[in-house]
Specification:
The protein is α+β, with helices and mostly antiparallel strands. Helices cover 24% and strands 35% of the residues. The chain has 2 helices and 20 strands. The strands form 8 sheets. Strands 7, 8, 11, 15 and 18 form a 5-stranded antiparallel β-sheet that branches. Strands 12-13-14 form a 3-stranded antiparallel β-sheet, with no helix packed on it. Strands 1-4 form a two-stranded antiparallel sheet. A hairpin with a 2-residue loop joins β13 and β14. The longest helix has 39 residues. The radius of gyration is 29 Å and the shape is elongated. It comes from Oceanobacillus kimchii. It is found in: Bacterial flagellum basal body. It holds the Pfam family LlgE_F_G_D1. Its main location: other.
């Protein structure tokens, strides 16, 4: 019976974590470039139960010998757990905003199944990070930055100075200013599933230069929207809530059975 308690409890914890992930997706449904989190749920390894301690008498010329035997009862599953949470890197819809500081990556063909392209930015610690959120602005010193104040980097890993809003981003990836053209830092990740998601739409991980086989274009005055499917996410949240309630009822039934076993069975004896 205690195994049933643990199984029901693991189901409740799993659905609670699933609900937290889905709620975060809904909260970021309007965040540009946001990639929806997907949880993978696995069952704990099955256990094979066997009964031991019994014996079987084998007749012999001396009268018989008792041999220990075991009887297979069957497999038992001890519950489920959230194995990992990974972002879904599918391209979001591109929506025109008319703002010259907004830039969207329109990804074409890539040589790897899980390959993906990102903007290169610098976080507050001076480390390179990756993002798909092209909702940029120009700071007081004339540098192109994200809305969180992170420098947008060029191909050489240096901040891009535009000295105002009078610049053009070409489809090929160049920022053209009065001082010249600077190649925007577009980075390629061969396996996007290995990236670590950080706050403010940033990802940490290894990236390389864009390979020749990869195709893309940039669109100024547009933003890639979140790839969260709001209707599907709401349906998944309702399903997770129902599963949580089901496990809760099972847990309550086990608790009531244990209470009767303690309070009534002993009194009958």
């Amino acid at each position: 019976m205690l195994r049933g308690l643990y199984t029901a409890a693991s189901g409740m914890i799993t659905q609670q974590r699933q609900q937290e992930s889905l709620s975060n997706n809904v909260a970021n449904a309007n965040t540009p470039g946001y990639k929806a989190d997907q949880t993978t749920i696995r069952a704990f390894p099955e256990l094979l139960l066997q009964q031991t301690g019994s014996s079987k008498q084998i007749p012999t010329t001396q009268g018989g010998v008792n041999f220990p035997v075991s009887q297979t009862i069957g497999p038992i599953n001890t519950g489920v757990y959230v194995q990992e949470t990974v972002p879904n890197f599918a391209q979001g819809d591109v929506q025109e905003t008319g703002l010259p500081t907004d830039v969207a990556i329109i990804q074409g063909q890539v040589p790897d199944e899980n390959g993906f392209l990102f903007f290169s930015v610098q976080n507050e610690n001076g480390e390179e990070r990756l993002t798909r959120n092209g909702n940029f602005t120009v700071d007081g010193e004339g540098f192109l930055v994200t809305n969180q104040g992170n420098y947008v980097l060029d191909e050489a890993g240096s901040p891009i100075q535009t000295n105002g809003l009078d610049y053009v981003v070409t489809p090929e990836g160049f920022v053209q200013t009065e001082d010249g053209a600077f190649p925007l830092g577009i980075r390629y990740v061969e396996n996007s599933n290995e990236l670590v998601k950080e706050g403010n739409d940033l990802f940490a991980g290894e990236s390389v230069d864009v390979p020749a086989a990869a195709t893309f274009s940039l669109q100024q005055g547009a933003l890639e929207q979140s790839n969260v499917n709001t209707m599907q996410t709401m349906a998944d949240m309702m399903n997770a809530y129902r599963l949580f309630e089901t496990n809760q009822r099972v847990l309550r039934a086990y608790d009531e059975s244990l209470g009767k076993a303690v309070n009534e069975v002993g009194r009958l004896g």
